[in-house]
Prior knowledge:
disordered N terminus; globular
Amino acid sequence: MHDDEQKSQATKLQSEGIEYSEEKKELDKPVSSSKKIRYLSIDLFRGLAIVGMVFVNILSEFDNTPKWSKHAVDYGLTYVDLIAPFFIFAIALTYKMSFDRYLKREGYVKTYTRFVVRYGALVGFGTIGSLSVFTTEGIMFSWGVLQAIGYAGIFTLFFIILPRIVRFVIGIGTLVSYQFILNISVEVEGVFMTLADLNFLDSHGGVIGGIGYAALMLIGTAIIDIFGERRKITILISGIVFSIIGTTIHYIWKFYDVPLYGGLSKERMTPSYVCLSLGLGAVLFWLIWYLFDEKAITKGKSKILQPLGRNALFLYILHPLLILLATLYLPQDSHAALVMLVGAINVVIIWLIAVWMNRKQIYIVI
Length: 366
């Protein structure tokens, strides 16, 4: 094609709203609605959650880690307390999009089966990974993030086909009901305690606390819904509103002692904690979207967090091996600076694995 013909063709195509590239001599065709679009902000948010998970889970195993880098004891909040709900919110970001894509391609039976197996497997992986065999009380297991994700994913599956406003109302209703559920008294080994106290005895709120995570994921899917088809400002507004609600409930409880168990507590998995962590997660995600997708400050790529986000769940399942190695070669009372250095090294190891998988185009979907 001669230069004059090229220019003529380019002018014609540009007038039709189609970008023309003389260097590549190809057309960037509009993406069809059925094609999967990958947003950089989603990968970055997931990658950030993984970095946080790997780092703080290493720190939590050692005695001299500063309190601000450990979970708050009972009521209170540190940055560590936000990482697990951020990870669950990261899954909510694409839940509806993923469900609709499979539904269109595979139908109802296969899609629901796929999601039940996926989230049921996470519950199974989490249970196996948390087993404690060598205990004086026999085989025991604790409730962890994987069980919480699986529980929340299955709960959300019951409602994901409903309109977003219905999901939102059900999620809020679940959270309000959960506030009252925490006050229910039960007898455990001859001792009467509330379910909120029972939550406190297990990490991540235990099985009952899983209701809070389930509400968080369901509300998250309503806030995000079909991400590419929604005005993004609603994410920011929702995040600000939920952050205010969570903080307000906490201070009402602090000064007036209502509602019972109304304070921010990751250990008890209180509704105020769910609201605040959901809100902060939405605000943080909107900021990442605005900078990296809307303003494209890195021109649509990120060599640091993007590879991590593309295999986030697999890397999270893998990282306990690094925790085990750290506890084997570091004494329990190691200096905090040394522990943090090891935590950072483990983050780098996970990142190198993620980069290698990304280059080989290995993407593992659980």
